[in-house]
Write a structure and sequence with these properties.
Blueprint lengths: L1 E7 L6 H14 L4 E7 L6 H11 L4 E5 L6 H10 L5 E4 L11 H4 L1
Amino acid sequence: MLSVIIPSYNEHENIKRTASVIAGILRENGIPYELIFVDDGSRDDTLHNLKKIYAAQECPVKVVSFSRNFGKEGAIFAGLKNAAGDCAVCIDCDLQHPPELIPEMY
């Protein structure tokens, strides 16, 4: 299984799209996965939107939430600590790096 760690800070507008795009790519390639979103103390609706995705159970999602902003490295570390996969990949929530490359890296 692949754990995809997604640090998220004030990303309420990107959460649903990010989960959908990454889950779709991994399903298309037959890769078992989990998405681990780490809310790094966001001040917008990021956590609220993450809870909605978790409740809908459209894809395997874990949500880790910080009480304040600890930075991207702290969020990645928390994601790794909560990962159940045999390997992990980190990707930004705004998809600035192409998620289409994940299957190749896997």
